[in-house]
Amino acid sequence: MPSAAKSRPTLPQPSPTPGKTGAAGGAAGISGPWQFAGVAALFLGLAAALLFSGAAAAREVSDPGSLIRWGLPISKAVHNVSLATVIGGLIFAVGILPRNASGSRSKDTSAPEHPAFSRALAVAAAAGAAWTLSAIAVLVLTYSDVAGQSLSGDAEFTRALVYFMTDIETGRAWLAVTIVAAVVTTALFGVRSLAGLAITLVLSLVGMVPIALIGHSSSSSDHEGAINSLALHLVGVSAWVGGIIMLAVLSGILTGAAGVKAATKADITEPTLRRFSSLAGFAFILVFASGVINASIRITSWHDLFGSAYGQMVLAKAVATLMLGGIGLMHRQWVIPQLHRKGSALSSRRVLWQLVIAELLIMGATSGIAVALGRSAPPQPTTFAPDASPAFILSGYELPPELTPERWLTEWRLDWLWIAVAVFGLVSYFLGVAKVLRRGDKWSWFRSVNWVIGLLVLTYITSGPPAVYGRVLFSAHMVDHMALTMVAPIFLVLGAPVTLALRALAARADGSRGLREWLLLFVHSKFSQLVTHPLFAAANFAGSIVLFYYSDAFGYAMRDHVGHELMNLHFALTGYIFVLSMIGTDPLPRRAPYPMRLLLLLATMGFHAFFGVAIMGGTGLLAADYFGNLGRPWGPSALLDQQMGGAVAWGIGEVPTLLVAIGVAVMWSRSDERETRRTDRAADRNNDADLTAYNDMFAKLAERDAKLADRNSKLEGR
Q1: CA distances to 63, 448, 585, 667, 673 from 670, in Å
Q2: Bridge partner residues of 29 (DSSP)
Q3: 254: in domain
Q4: What DSSP letter does each residue of 393-432 carry, written as one string?
Q5: Residue 386: predicted pLDDT
Q6: Are residues 243 and 341 in the same domain?
Q7: Residues near 500 by Cβ (< 8 Å), separated by ≥ 6?
Q8: Please, are residues 540 and 573 in contact by the beta-carbon 8 Å criterion?
Q9: Which of 357, 375, 393 corresponds to the end of one domain?
């Protein structure tokens, strides 16, 4: 039976004309003019969408002028593309391209860089400058648009602009974006270590958070769902679009075309495309799924979808995304397998770069439509209703019905951020398991079951009744918190995800750092040594509770969406690291001896008891401006409910800790058994040499004592 590889269709064999000037895509890469094809498509798509939706039309009241109406969306388009290019360049430098021309993984930053690595960072730095300038332009033009006045250099305009930047949410958001862009751009011009570039990449991703918090994300139907889905959408789009841009600008260097130094003429197109293809596959799923979720929040009827300009532009975006997904599938299933084959490599490279140009054109037009969507009013309102309840004003949601036992299973509000984490964790885990099993190795079903249970528990905690009622009842919040920090981590730690990743991921030999290399680097880093140290993990696990609940951080986490998600992240990681240091099997820089683990567990149990009793006996309401103003007509009073929450903290905190202590005791017992078996096997190998030597030592001591006694008796007889 023929293999799957042989059954694939063979690419056509045109006459080779590598590097032909003006060609849309030659075997040697994409020529200069065609690298900017996506920019032209971006502005054409933007202009068409603005005219179609009427978003650029003059307003009847407080019209800022045509310069603002057209300049603002153009500035946003430049901002979005620049940001994506920065993120794409950093992703390629950090995880796809080899850093050194020699292909080694030397830490010496003075070693000659690979031309593709240097080009990626140079393009990212230039894009960073454009990102910063366009963010400033968006900031100023947004104020003019909101104020309904044209640009001016007088003192009154400047004072109002400063007030907009410091006191209005939209202005503060764009000011934060500008600051982040400036810091990232500065780092791109000076940082060359991979660790520093990885931190810069994380910072650039943080720069998208303020963008997700403004605009249509304040949708009144699901405020937090709109924010989370938009944030996930921005991450996926930036990684995908930025990666395609990088493939275009690096095409000549990847293929080792003319003009590249002889020492680095090796063709790295196939590994680069294969690595990016995996990332692009996840990005496509993330972009399409988050786009559907975000659109469903703002479009709640078929009429709005097909009968409004906003809905029709959403449909156009969806169709374009599916087309891009189809092209990505062609890359993965058709082009990549033939890049290294004799006879078809040249033609496959030509098809590769022509497909990349097609992707640039489609992505550019789609990005223009996306900017126009941001300027168009969605069918659903994005402002508070005049009769909004206190609960809606404080939390963004109306009060749920009174809590009953069955509603601990039925009341859900999906947190798309944590659902994305759970789905990604589930898919990645079982892809790793499948790879390990295909290789002929074994993987424990017990670990897999625990990982699935842990993700289900995590989803229930963050999207289920504990999350819904945790926003209005302190007692339910305590259930949410203690389960997040003590229940879910136990199952997740028993799943041993780091061990699975190290077994499933292949090591790279070209000097680049993949997920496996970054994972090993993080495990052995100074930061990991600090946060996973048993004493630090225990102190952080217990002490952060007091610092959180008896400071303004608790109120901030309840009122603000970012604060709420940071709270979830902190307590999930804190619990995971603590449980990992107690019963985990994943590699750690340092592990405490078993007696110390039991002592630390007993100490945390005592601390939880102290904390719970303190809450139970407290007479002051925590986060009083939040829980005291929700207007809840059912259930106990806010203070009585808080005291009940103290009992919950005490009870739920003790049971999982006791189970972990039992796990430590079992591991200690098994460790002693393994040591005993190891000693017995060693004794069998050397015929009890250790025991024989031990007995010989005592025999020699007895013989020496007998000689001393005989000598003493002779001396006494004289």
Answers
A1: 76, 22, 13, 5, 5
A2: 26
A3: yes
A4: HHHSSPPPPPP-TTHHHH-----HHHHHHHHHHHHHHHHH
A5: 65
A6: yes
A7: 429, 432, 433, 436, 443, 447
A8: no
A9: 375
| Secondary structure of 79-121 as H, E, C letters | HHHHHHHHHHHHHHHHHCCCCECCCCCCCCCCCCECHHHHHHH
What letter would DSSP give residue 507?
P
User: Hey, is 56 helix, strand or coil?
Assistant: coil
State the Cα–Cα distance between residues 123 and 82, nearest whole angstrom.
Answer: 10
pLDDT at residue 199 in the model: 95
pLDDT at position 171, please?
A: 92
Q: Are 371 and 46 in contact (CB under 8 A)?
A: yes
419 and 311 within one domain: no
pLDDT of residue 88: 95
> What is the C-alpha to C-alpha distance for residues 19 and 37, in angstroms, rounded to an integer?
18
Write the DSSP string, 248-274. HHTHHHHTT-TTS-GGG----HHHHHH
Q: Which of 195, 203, 244 is nearest to 95 (CA)?
A: 195
Tokens of 342: 């004799």
Burial of 694 (0-12, 13-18, 19+ CB in 10 A): exposed
User: What six digits make up the tokens of 617?
Assistant: 């006996």
Report CA torsion sign: 444, 448, 454, 457.
negative
Q: H helices of 505-637, where?
A: 515-523, 526-531, 534-549, 552-559, 561-583, 594-617, 624-627
> Considering the domain boundaries, does residue 17 fall inside one?
no
Question: Is there a single domain that holds both residue 460 and residue 358?
Answer: no
Domain that holds residue 452: 408-505+516-628+638-668
* The predicted structure's pLDDT at residue 226: 86
Which pTM value belongs to this model? 0.86
Indicate whether 301 belongs to any domain. yes
**Are the beta carbons of 452 and 422 closer than 8 angstroms?**
no
Residue for token digits 């503060």?
A: 172
260's CB contacts (< 8 A; 6+ apart) are 115, 252, 253
Segments in the chain below pLDDT 70: 1-28, 103-111, 215-221, 256-265, 341-346, 380-387, 672-696, 698, 702, 705, 709-710, 712-718
Strand segments, DSSP code E, in 273-339 are none
Backbone region of residue 22 per phi and psi (left: phi > 0; alpha: psi in -120 to 50; beta: other values): left
One domain, residues 317 and 418: no
- Residue 6 is predicted with a pLDDT of 36
Same structural domain for residues 201 and 342? yes
**Phi then psi dihedrals of residue 236, to 5 deg:** -65, -45
- Number of structural domains, the chain? 2
CA neighbor of 446 nearest in space, from 489, 504, 483, 493: 493
Same domain, 451 and 305: no
Query: One-letter amino acid identity for 300?
Result: T
C-beta of residue 621 within 8 angstroms of C-beta of residue 628: yes
Residue 3 CA, distance from chain mean position: 38
Task: Based on the fold, state whether residues 187 and 279 are members of the same structural domain.
Answer: yes
Whether 489 and 575 map to the same domain: the answer is yes
Closest CA to 248 of 5, 15, 24: 24
In a domain, 678, yes or no: no
76 by Cβ neighbours in 10 Å (0-12 / 13-18 / 19+) ranks as buried
Are 562 and 554 in contact by the 8 Å Cβ rule? The answer is no
Report the first-to-last Cα separation within the chain, whole angstroms.
Answer: 103
Q: Output phi, psi for 221, to 5 deg.
A: -75, -35
Give me the half-sphere count of Cα atoms (radius 13 Å) on the Cβ side of residue 502: 13
d(CA 235, CA 35): 23
Neighbour count for residue 81 (Cβ, 10 Å): 26
